[in-house]
Amino acid sequence: MGSSGHRATESGQMTGEPQNVSQPLARSKATPLANQRVSAAIETLLTVLLITIDLVKVVLLALPVLVREIYSMVSPRRSKDVRGQVVLITGGGNGLGRSMARLFATRGCKLVLVDIDLGAAQRTCDELKQELGTTAWAYRVDVSKYDECRRLAEQMKSDGCGTVDILVNNAGLILFAFLGESDPEREANVVDVNIKSHIWMTRVFLNEMIQRKRGHIVGISSMSGMYAFPWGVVYSATKFAVSGFMASLTEQLRIQGLSKAVRTTCINPYYVATRKDVVDFLEKPRFPLLDVDDAAEQMVKGILRNDVVVTVPRLFGVFTRFMLLFPVSVQQLVRDYLIREYELNKCLNP
Could you give the CA distance from residue 297 to residue 314 in angstroms, rounded to a whole number? Predict the structure, then answer.
């Protein structure tokens, strides 16, 4: 009986009683989940560690660079020799373009002056030829149109101008107006000339520079492309676009391993007294307008030093970058009390 009962109990345990499998299954499901959490935590920790190591590398590598940049403000880098090089300047017939052309000519460069006003470009060429014995060509081109930029390159080859060593994208239109005050056609024209000309001209001449592993692309932006200019919303937007284009182009060439072969320079001048309408509009600037020839000289010096970014005057760029570190409300105080933008033109408060 005892033996039989014992067997019955064993049989009942083996066949008659339900087995409790939920706990082992739960443990089997929990184990992979716990492993995933541990793996994720370790991965996050490693990522933070690697970023920290990279940050330390950046700081260590940046220190000598910062020292060199600060030193260069006191003792500028030597200028490169550009004798015999071909310099193409858009908007080269008047204003800054004309002044830069003369400065490059005095350094022994050949000039290609492009302007929508062929008469102005030709007069500047003739002056350089007569006064300095410069080899120079003048072309009428609407640089906002890609086909005309491409035909320019073909015509230059036919005329024996040689390959372009330095391209200065200087052509631009100024529009002093609050948004909505000017007609859409004029605003569209400003956008086309101020932005598209940089893209199309660079596209046409960059590939040859890359093939030769020598060249320099210069974009004339503005201080209005570093901080917002309320008196010319569309104009300021185009200059921000130029600064962004030049920064992107600089990084493209760097990751392509071409930054030492094809240089870039983005120039941000303060207000320059280039034309009468500019001088007439800027009735009460807090700081005096720049003389055209003085501004051009600082620009050309920056190009010849291979500076990536040039601000004219130089300290204005330092001040602007410092101002942009602060909240917008603080920047507006600077605008109101230091720059006094609301006094620039009486049309705001007639």
Answer: 13
